[in-house]
User: Fold these one by one.
Assistant:
Number 1:
Amino acid sequence: EVQLVESGGGLVQPGRSLKLSCLASGFTFSNYGMNWIRQAPGKGLEWVASISSSSSYIYYADTVKGRFTISRDNAKNTLYLQMTSLRSEDTALYYCARWYPRYFDYWGQGVMVTVSS
Amino acid sequence: DIQMTQSPSSLPASLGERVTISCRASQGISNNLNWYQQKPDGTIKPLIYYTSNLQSGVPSRFSGSGSGTDYSLTISSLEPEDFAMYYCQQDASFPPTFGGGTKLELK
């Protein structure tokens, strides 16, 4: 059974940093591109970042470019999102999602990040 | 970026009713349109990919159609577990973008 379990969320002050993790199981992690997608409270879904299976290709939404870094450790079956210079508008539920060609076929349960002083 | 507009944003409906949710893209997306369901506990799963392909395990009461800029998701006969949020998403052009969502609620 495919499982994606996010961790690392919490309350953080504006301008500080936080690192999210997503532990994958039930499939060959190194074969799939992975993504972070977020949902602000009461809002819709927003794609944040993507990384290819071997980390050769990495993409970011304009809203996080230069502040967030996506990475992965295929030996540990883990996806990461390093978030720096956090702003109140980054407050959201962050999901990791597997990329099956052309759509997101498995999603984690999400981890909450709250940016507030 | 391609903008995705869903309608309605809220859809009151009854058990057994047939409902349709619409999604319009700001430009043609050549059937690269996916649908997702989000339950109140936050769980998200894909329903339909590439306009009309049913994801494995999804009941056949769900169907998708469309072309060009206009797409739709239809549920033929509502079951209690179908009351949830629904999102469309385009994959024709980077970055992937989502519609604003449709809340399907019990009338």
Note: The interface with chain B takes residues 44-47, 59, 61, 93, 95, 97, 102-105, 107, 109-110 of chain A (CB under 8 Å).
Number 2:
Amino acid sequence: KQEVTQIPAALSVPEGENLVLNCSFTDSAIYNLQWFRQDPGKGLTSLLLIQSSQREQTSGRLNASLDKSSGRSTLYIAASQPGDSATYLCAPAGANNLFFGTGTRLTVIP
Amino acid sequence: DVKVTQSSRYLVKRTGEKVFLECVQDMDHENMFWYRQDPGLGLRLIYFSYDVKMKEKGDIPEGYSVSREKKERFSLILESASTNQTSMYLCASSLIQSLNTEAFFGQGTRLTVV
């Protein structure tokens, strides 16, 4: 069964800093990997989707990389803002499921 | 934009009640999913459906059933609610079965069983 680990569990940074969130997974046979953000008490908002054949995907200040063979993905956030404060979840996709870890809770301090 | 809408943001039900959670998507997606989210456990798949009237059990189906009579609607049913089913429930949809497309989530339903 796919196991997903996100490190660190919580991160606090000053506004303007660049940061990296890490995701590792145990089964490299994935279709794709998606990054989500979740605000407290809310649903998940899709940020980026990386296909299994891709190495990288960018959207605005976000850049996600995927190394399928080593079971790792990173989410890079440039010039962080207080509005980026949320929990970030990575989700590698199997044939019929997305697998989730417990996420990284990010706080950006003004 | 894809929209996945869950019928309630908050629900409070009594132990033993039959509970219906409704989810509707507006983008003609084939796949729909129900997850529950608990602190320290992440999101866990309860059931999914890849077509009308088709359903598959996920990792934690016990105590739940589902219904998909129309493509756009996927219902989660708690046959007899128990306090250990107090949780955040999240519905999701995606376009095709292989999940090579983006999954979209609803806003979540916070269910409390008392």
Note: The mean pLDDT of chain A is 94.
